[in-house]
Design goal:
single chain; 429 residues; alpha/beta; Adenylosuccinate Synthetase, Chain A, domain 1; Adenylosuccinate Synthetase, subunit A, domain 2; Adenylosuccinate Synthetase, Chain A, domain 3; ten-stranded mixed sheet; four-stranded mixed sheet; 12 helices; 19% strand; globular; binds guanosine-5'-diphosphate; binds 6-O-phosphoryl inosine monophosphate; binds magnesium ion
Amino acid sequence: MANVAVIGAQWGDEGKGKVVDWLASRAEIVVRFQGGHNAGHTLVVGDQTYKLSLLPSGVVRGKLGIIGNGVVLDPQALLDEIAKVTAQGLKVSPENLKIAENVPLILPLHPALDKAREAARGGDKIGTTGRGIGPAYEDKVGRRSIRLCDLAEPETLSKKLDELLLHHNSLLRGLGATPFEKQPLLDALLALAPQLLPYGEAVWERLDAARAEGKRVLFEGAQAVMLDVDHGTYPYVTSSNTVAGNAAAGAGVGPDSIGLVLGIAKAYATRVGSGPFPSELHDEIGRRLGERGHEFGTVTGRPRRCGWFDAAMVRQAVKIGGVNGLVLTKIDVLDGLPELKICTGYRLDGAVVKHLPAAMRAQSRCEPIFETMEGWSGSCKGARSYAQLPAQAVKYVRRIEELVEAPVMMLSTSPDRDDTIALRDPFAG
Ligand code: GDP
Ligand code: IMO
Ligand code: MG
């Protein structure tokens, strides 16, 4: 089956939304398989800008969207997002959006715990989005989650809320935060039920049928490999597996359904929140990248930290994430820089290491080893073919391919949907 999975190869915000929107024209179904409304995906189509957090980016193309069981779903956030995009002229209904009936829900107590924990960490915050993502995944693994299907069973819901509140209120009280009362939570969930339940179904059945009919499915990742709960810069990570392997478990399909894996990477690097970032720039160039790239978080509005392209880290993400090809985005942001640097490895205690070590202190002590390349005087902005790129920009792309050990299959040269260069059709396998 010619399916494609899109994952982030750095620390998020690589332009996955734009790439998924572009690829969605060739797909029939777009599936989100992990994360929640911590994600923020910006799509620019002509003079319209869509900011999506939970809705699969294919909705803008009118494609069938599926929210898989691997997502943690805040029902109110979903309804708000549907209202927002509806006001922009899109149509979202149970006709074109399906939600796994076994998806765990984010309730108001999850962001409350997320924020109380962050506050308790003082100066050592993770820098979460405060959306309750971590606590919601903890409840799933702890077998306490309220799932979409529970909204159809008021008695189950009531019993599960007791168990959930016993757990959460103990923690909230311990952290000096306000505990939650059961009745308002139960009432709110029962009030939301009629709006949400029509979206719920066994999406695995639909995906199985799609497979039998040879339909093209696009798996849309959120966050990125370096934020993966196992493989990222732990504990400064999100709480889900962001690698392509999780597309199978998070959607309810077999591993052979995932198809080609595209890793999305910016032509430089950014990170929101705390944690190691060896190639980070604290100078004028870093500020310039931030300004030119409009590097502010879509979800929280926080300025993103900026740095040089870290090829050692992206190579690591390519290997761990099962990436078959890269999409290099935002190369236009590098236009006009006289000199570019690429991080090729790290110096740690006098030794050279080729990848980020797992231990937290070792990670924070990694010093980047850079190689320098000449910049270009022409412009990549808006280029729609390889031939339109300055020769030096092509050299930069080639060098990245060598260092990360993966081919660049697509390039993005502006936020606009159409300013995209496809060197290969990913659906062709
Ligand atoms: P995502 O979370 O991976 O979907 O990425 P975001 O949407 O959070 O952040 C990427 C930002 O860069 C968005 O504002 C996009 O509109 C913008 N963008 C995407 N591709 C390009 C590009 O090639 N050039 C420029 N200048 N901006 C881009
Ligand atoms: P997209 O899909 C960038 C970061 C947060 C924080 C860490 C944990 O738009 O690329 P969480 O709220 O998930 O518990 O926060 O992960 N983070 C992201 N950074 N892009 C994202 O999503 C992110 N989602 C979470 O900033 O450092
Ligand atoms: Mg984003």
